[in-house]
Design a protein that fits this description.
Layout (H helix, E strand, L loop, with lengths): L1 H16 L5 H8 L4 H20 L1 E7 L2 E10 L2 E7 L2 H15 L23 H12 L3 H14 L13 H8 L6 H20 L17 H26 L7 H7 L5 H5 L6 E2 L4 E4 L1 E3 L5 E3 L11 E4 L2 H12 L24 E2 L2 E2 L2 H20 L13 H12 L4 H8 L4 H7 L18 H21 L1
Antiparallel strand pairs: 1-2, 2-3, 4-5, 5-8, 6-7, 9-10
Helix pairs in contact: 2-3, 3-4, 5-8, 6-8, 9-14, 9-17, 15-16
Length: 463
């Protein structure tokens, strides 16, 4: 009977105190109750439960995420623990109380009056929180959204979403004291939240908001310099093809002319290339922690894929590159972390997938050497070609060649035609003529001749 009682009390102690272990009491119970140990255990249990009952629990933003917080006063100081669930919060609190010692508990923390939740008439803040939970945003985007909300919409977040007017929102997003980029992001955020409210039937009509004026300096620069970028990229591609030092990068740079994102190129596996149809299926991407995940750019819970045809010379270049590999097995994963078996990455550096940092480093060196050797010029911010600019080049040349925007959208992997139009830059000098892009264009031949002759002269001088 004594053993059964100790077993029952031991179980009760574990359920109340979580993972907190008290070796003295545990050993005493194991050997049969000693009166002193039994009394000490009950005193500790009562004091800890008292501390738990005196703490206040509320939701707050911690490290960029909305979490539960428990606040109490112990040893003359306010103590805090944070967790994503109430169960974890309770365990963390009881552990912390036991670590500090229960003697220092003075008085209960001030309880926070939480607003009642009215699902029929939610506040703007409640809709925003639901939107965050349902959107499954990446950590960086999540933090950015919370930061934007706290800075922009804190003053109106308690208003019922049904009563939020167009004038109220435009007073914030059209504020002339805001930087253009900040106002633009505020506008995008509140539109996303209102779209979610409309989808959930919290509102019947979404206010039509005026968009803040936004001068995209990168787009303006691309519009002005698109022809220069096209010629520079053609020259860089030829330079890499003829330069033994950078020849291992040629397949990657060649694929950039198809408008692929760098993360999609670095994530290509042998299994994505169809030998029968000579097509490339884009269904993986390299994420910031240098791991490969299934799906292309988009929300973390969205799996996207697209298939594009490979011209003969592209297919041959990839096959030649694959033959040089030692077939190092790298295992991509699905979005949920499940390993994708029997996949072989083709762009490898030191037996690991080629990283963003390495690509950016070598891409900068290629351009530096190209402008120095071919044009006797220095690489500057003005002539540096960003890797992502090649997508703008591809979109512009497809429009220049008269390719329908729907086809360009499918090749580039854009979610809508408006984004494809944003990537398209047509200048007055780009006439709509029938040419073969990157292959038989006279500009390509001219650029190839310049690079070949200059490199030939340089090599002879070195000898």
């Amino acid at each position: 009977m004594e053993r059964n009682a100790s077993k029952a009390l031991g179980t009760n102690r574990q359920s109340l105190l979580g993972d907190v272990e008290f070796e003295l009491i545990h050993s005493s119970i194991s050997n049969g109750f000693h009166g002193v140990a039994y009394i000490k255990w009950w005193l500790l249990l009562v004091a800890t439960c008292y501390a738990h009952s005196m703490a206040s629990t509320f939701k707050t933003i911690h490290n960029g995420h909305e979490q539960y917080c428990m606040k109490w006063k112990q040893d003359g100081k306010w103590r805090y623990v944070y967790a994503y669930t109430r169960a974890d919060l309770n365990n963390k609190h009881l552990k912390r109380v036991a670590e500090i010692g229960v003697d220092g508990i003075i008085k209960p923390a001030r309880r926070v009056n939480k607003p009642r939740v009215n699902k029929n008439n939610p506040s703007l803040k409640m809709v925003f929180n639901e939107y965050l939970e349902q959107a499954n945003l990446g950590e960086k985007t999540y933090t950015q959204r919370v930061h934007e909300w706290n800075n922009g919409f804190k003053t109106i977040e308690k208003l019922p979403v049904k009563t939020v007017s167009r004038e109220t929102i435009e007073k914030i997003i059209l504020d002339k004291t805001l930087p253009q980029s900040t106002a633009f992001h505020y506008s995008s955020l509140i539109n996303a939240v209102l779209n979610y409210a409309l989808k959930r039937d919290y509102i019947k009509i979404k206010p039509t908001l005026l968009k803040p004026s936004y001068e995209n300096k990168t787009a303006i620069k691309n519009n002005i310099k698109i022809e220069q970028y096209v010629n520079d990229f053609r020259g860089i591609m030829r330079y890499v093809e003829k330069n033994d030092k950078y020849k291992h990068m040629y397949p990657i740079i060649k694929l950039m002319t198809l408008g692929l994102r760098i993360g999609e190129i670095l994530a290509i596996t042998r299994e994505q290339i169809s030998d029968a149809n000579m097509t490339l299926t884009i269904n993986k991407t390299l994420v910031n922690n240098n791991t490969l995940k299934a799906g292309t750019k988009g929300r973390a819970d969205t799996y996207k894929t697209r298939t594009i045809p490979l011209p003969m010379d592209y297919y041959a270049i990839l096959m030649n590159h694959i033959q040089t590999l030692d077939h190092t097995v790298l295992t991509p994963v699905w979005r949920d972390g499940t390993i994708i078996n029997n996949e072989h990455v083709i762009f490898i550096k030191n037996k690991h997938v080629m990283t963003y940092s390495y690509f950016n480093w070598i891409w900068h060196r290629i351009q530096r050497d190209y402008f120095n050797e071919i044009w006797n010029n220095k690489l500057t911010d003005d002539n540096y070609l960003k890797p992502h600019t090649t997508r703008h080049i591809t979109a512009s040349l497809m429009a220049y060649d008269g390719i329908p925007i729907s086809m360009a959208q499918a090749i580039l992997g854009h979610m809508n035609a408006q984004m494809t139009q944003h990537y398209t830059h047509i200048t007055s000098n780009m006439k709509r003529e029938t040419i073969e892009r990157f292959i038989n264009d006279t500009n390509v031949q001219t650029m190839n001749n310049i690079v070949d002759e200059t490199m030939k002269i340089n090599n002879e001088n070195k000898k």
